[in-house]
From TrEMBL:
Protein name stated in the entry: AAA+ ATPase domain-containing protein
Top-rank taxon: Bacteria
Cited InterPro entries: AAA+_ATPase, ArsA/GET3_ATPase-like, ATPase_ArsA/GET3, P-loop_NTPase
SUPFAM superfamilies assigned to the protein according to its UniProt record, in alphabetical order: P-loop containing nucleoside triphosphate hydrolases
Phylogenetic placement of the source organism: Bacteria, Bacillati, Actinomycetota, Actinomycetes, Micrococcales
Length: 334
């Protein structure tokens, strides 16, 4: 099975792996190929070290921008073989700091509305402390990923995620389940409070916190439902696939094996492997020695993940940039 066969039938695609192995290039090349096939595609970079703009040679930021548009034909039956449907490719780079600030601002607004006025300064103090607390950044980025998935399923045919390096991505993939469980625990605590409020109401005693607690419960329910929807999408093999990008070297291979194991435990479908920057065969000298070394590590990869489809992309003499370069690179993925 070719990787394009995996991509063609999916609505959500993640690409992950060690830093510097070519995830952004691979994500963009696959996204462009699908757009050229007539699909509406959104590529999203969640890696703090963004390269999407450099790759496409244009400004790409925290708002969606067009990256590629098909040539519009007035007559789809003009003998050119086009289907008449114009594909497109949009891109966005999630800004971690801006995302965290927006996330905390939203949380702060909700808390100030629900908490007594005299606690407003306390809310601000806790949010300032939370800004750099472990997990805050991941929770904020997860919200943006949920947004992008929902937008992608509603407005696009395919959304492609160019993710951060392996360790960060593994934690992010585990977060929907963790956040859902955490929210469920909060809801159980709210249930006990609701029962107490109900008992007071039955005795004819008005509970001044009942309305506030009811809104907290509705907020928690919406949050739980959102994370459950996201997890459902991430674990649906008919909708989602995760491709692992690597170089045929020790650390990338070992990280790939570890990440694949983590994803499988989480129920995220792993669709295939892209071995990038492969030393060309028959080149002689240094490149021949490197290829032999790479073969040894690909044997390790086969022993661990031999059930996955794999493509190999040879090391190129220059950088891949722009639609023309990506189209050429994408030919090796088909």
């Amino acid at each position: 099975m070719l990787l394009t066969d995996v991509v063609r039938g999916r609505r959500v695609l993640f690409l992950g792996g060690k830093g510097g192995v070519g995830k952004t290039t691979t994500a963009s090349a696959l996204a462009l190929a699908q757009a050229q096939a007539g699909r509406r595609v959104l590529v999203v970079s969640t890696d703090p070290a963004h390269n999407l703009g450099h790759l496409w040679q244009r400004d790409v930021g925290d708002a969606v921008v067009p990256l590629w548009r098909a040539e519009v034909r007035s007559d789809p039956s003009d003998g050119t073989g086009t289907s008449g449907r114009a594909g497109l490719l949009d891109g966005v780079e999630i800004d971690p700091r801006r995302t965290t600030d927006a996330h905390l601002a939203q949380v702060g607004s909700t808390l100030r509305r629900l908490m007594p006025d005299h606690l407003a300064k306390e809310v601000d103090r806790h949010l300032d402390l939370a800004r750099d607390a472990p997990g805050t950044h991941e929770a904020a980025v997860l919200e943006r990923i949920a947004d992008a998935v929902e937008t992608g399923l509603a407005d696009y045919d395919l959304v492609v995620f160019d993710t951060a390096p392996s360790g960060h991505t593994a934690r992010l993939m585990a977060l929907p389940e963790t956040m859902s469980a955490w929210t469920e625990g909060l809801l159980r605590r709210r249930d006990r409070a609701d029962k107490f409020s109900g008992a007071l109401s039955g005795l004819g005693v008005r509970d001044p916190k009942a309305e506030r607690d009811s809104e907290i419960r509705r907020t928690l329910l919406r949050r739980r439902e959102r994370f459950e929807r996201l997890r459902s999408v991430l674990t649906d093999p008919e909708t989602t696939s995760f491709l692992l990008v690597l170089a045929a070297e020790r650390l990338p291979v070992l990280e790939t094996v570890e990440l694949a194991g983590t994803l499988r435990k989480l129920g995220v479908p792993v669709g295939g492997l892209v071995v990038n920057k492969r030393s060309p065969d028959g080149a002689g000298g240094l490149l021949a020695a490197r290829r032999a070394h790479e073969d040894e590590w690909l044997a390790v990869l086969d022993a661990e993940l031999g059930d996955l489809p794999r493509v190999e992309c040879e090391l190129l003499p220059g950088e891949v940039t722009g639609a023309a370069g990506l189209e050429q690179f994408g030919a090796a993925l088909r």
